[in-house]
Amino acid sequence: MRTRNAKSKPRVAPARKASATNKPRVRRAARSTTFDDANLRQALIDAAVELAREGDPGEVTVREAGRRAGVSASASARHFPSRAALMGAVAAEALRRFNGEMQHALAAVSTDDPVERLRAIGHAFIRWTLRSPTHFRILSARHLIGFAQVPELRDDVQEVADGVTALAAEAQRRGQWPQGSTRLVVLTCRALVYGLSRMKIDGQLPQWGVDEDEAEPALIDALDLYIDLLARAARKTGRR
Length: 240
Hints:
- By secondary structure, the protein is mainly α.
- It is built from ten helices and no strands.
- α5 packs antiparallel against α8.
């Protein structure tokens, strides 16, 4: 019977030394940054806006916002326990920015004419939307921001709506706008200014013959046309 000698033993390849190219890829930890509570909250809001600007607001998470800000997930969660809480804070900031734009526009109106003040608010909304499209998209996404659960946001939105409604009612009282349901008049105005802004954000204007560089004047002219048509309808009714 033949026996296997040492030379017939199977050869075993020596273990390879780990090299830089063979090492498993490890996700790099976020940079560590120190904030006080107020600054950390703002840093997370700013990070969420950046992430929404780069992609879809619906994909923003508290964890990723914390990573972008350079803080731990637990530190982020202390301020924002959910995505809705984070996006609600972003939306509240967006509304504050719009309110600033609106107040600036109203301060430039030297008359108490309700139609001119409404016109200024509409112009301010369009300009704010074009300058802050990410904030507009977030504020519009009510399903993401937990609108009903953010009292500050809900109250501020209602305050704007009440102010617009009061101006529209005064325009009707003075005979500048058609009589009828103030609520429906305000609804159509809101639908128009929102729809025009949405068309710009969604890239639809070129399809309707409006180039990007003329978007702002075109949207403002469209709003002015509607406001003037309301005034013309009121004058026509008054002559009957």
